[in-house]
Amino acid sequence: MAMHVPKTSGFSSMLKEGASHFRGLDEAVFRNIEACRQLAKTTKSAYGPNGMNKMVINHLEKLFVTNDAATIMKELEVEHPAAKMLVLASQMQESECGDGTNFVLIFAGALLHHAEYLLRMGLSPSEVLEGYEKACDKAMEILPALVVHTLTDIRNVEVVSKALKTTLASKQYGVEDFIAKLVTDACVCVLSETGGFNVDNVRVCKILGCGVLQSTVVKGMVFKREIETNLKSVDDVKIVVFSCPLESMNTETKGTVLLNTADELLKFSKGEEDLFNNQVQAIVAAGAKVIVTGGKVSDLALHYCNKYKILVVRLQSKFDLRRLAKTVGATVLPKLTPPTADDLGHCDHVYMDEIGDTNVIVFKQDKDASKISTVVVRGSTDSLMDDVERAIDDGINAFKVLTKDGRYVPGAGATEIELAKQLQTFSETCPGLDQYAIKKFADAFEDFPRAMSDNAGVNSMEILSKLYAAHQEGKKTFGIDIEAEGAAVKDVLEAGILDQYLVKYWAIKLATNAAVTVLRVDQIIMARQAGGPKPRDPRAGGDGDDD
Questions:
Q1: Given strand 149-150, what is the order of strands in its sheet?
Q2: pLDDT recorded at residue 544
C-alpha cells in the first residue's frame, strides 16, 4: 500500500487532520493576553466594599448572586487554557490565604495588559519577563517595610475583630463589624492551647428568617433536625455515639425458624424484645442519657428509650456524626454494644429549639474552650445567607492567616500606591530595557485604587493624583476615603483599614507568576477533539432529534 504524502508543508502537516496551530505574537501571545484581560475585567467591577454583584447560573442551573471572585471563578468553568492559568493562580491564593483572589486576577490582568503595550512597542518577551521578575523581587523587599501593625494576642476578641473587619467589609459592607465579632467569637473558642487552628472546626448553620443581625454563635453544634424520643431537653449528660442503626441486630448468616404453635410465636417475639431491653439497660447502666445514631431508629428502640428516659438523635451524615463525636469527646461505635467510660462523651446542654419556623437540635458546651463552634446565620433569602456564609468563610481563613503571621499593611489602596511610587523610582536606576517593564509593573498597581474609586462612583484620576500627592509628602498610610462625598483620601491606619501582609505577599507573587507563565507561551497547538456526540444546547428548541 502506498504511503500517504501530505500536500502542505510546515508544522501543520505533521498533525492529524482537524488539529489547529497558532504561533507568533499576533496569533498566540496577544490572543492569550486578550482572554486573560477579559477574565480580569469580569471580576474588576466586584472589587472593594462597593463592588457589584454577579449573577452566575452554573451547569446545574443553581443561582449564585455574589461578588466573591473565588465563587465566580469556580462556577464559571473557564475553558480557555491561558485564562485557566489565572483561575488556577486565584484558586491557589484561595487555598493559601482564603482571601485576595480578586487581587490576583486584577493584578495579573493589568500586568498582561501593560505587557501587550510593551511588546507592540518593540520589546521582546524575554525583556518584559526579566523586568517583571526583577520588579516582583523588589516589591517583596519593599513590602515588609510597609508593615504598620503586628497583632500578637490572637485570643483578644476585641483586637482580632477589628483586624478582620477589612476582610469582611469587601464582602458584606455595612455589617462587617457585627460579622467580624461573630467570626472572632467562633474562632477564638476553638483555638487550641498550642495556638493551632483548623478551619473545619467552625461550622455554619443557615436558618431562613429575621435578618443578618440576629445571627448568633453556639459553642457546640446545631443540626436542623428533630429529636426522635419524647424527651426533648437534658443537661450535664453523657453521650454515646453509634454509626449503626438503633434496632435489633440481624444474624450474620441467614436461617429459617419453624414455628408450629401460637405460643412459640409469642416466645420468639418476647425473646427478641428481652434481648433489646437488655441492650438498652446496659447502655443506661454505663451512664449514657443521650444516644446519637447514624442509622434508622426502630419502633421497638423508641419504646425502650422512652421507657428509660433516654434522648435519641438521628444524624444522616457520617461527617456530622464524626464532628459531633469530636465536639463531645466520644468514640463512634460501629455496633450496638454497651460503651466503656472512655467511649462516652459529655455535653452540658442537649435540647431541641425552634428558630423561626425551623426545629433544631443544639449540643451546647458552657466552658469557654470548645472543640467545634457553630455560627447560626439568619437572613431573609437563601442567596443572602449563602453570601454571608462565604463572607464568614473568608473571615475564618483570615483568622487562620493570623495564627501564622500577624503583620498588617495599610489598606484602601495605600500599600499599592506606595509600592507603585517606590518601584517607579527603582526603574529609573535600572540601565537596561527591562526598566520599561519595571515601570509598567508599578503602573499595574494603580488598577486597585482605580477599581475601588470607579466602583464607588468617584473620579479615579482625581483619587490617584491625591494619593500620589499624599505619598510624595511621606504619608505612606493614606488611602481612599470611600465614605466621603467626593474624591478624598484619609489616614487608613487611624481608621483601622488594614490588609494582611501574607495575603498581599502571596497575591503579588502568584499574580506575577501567572502573568509570566502566560507571556512565556509563543505557540498554541490544539489536537483534534475526541469523537462522540456533542452535548445538546438546552437553549435550542425541539427534542434534539434530527428530522
A1: 149-150, 407-410, 498-500
A2: 45
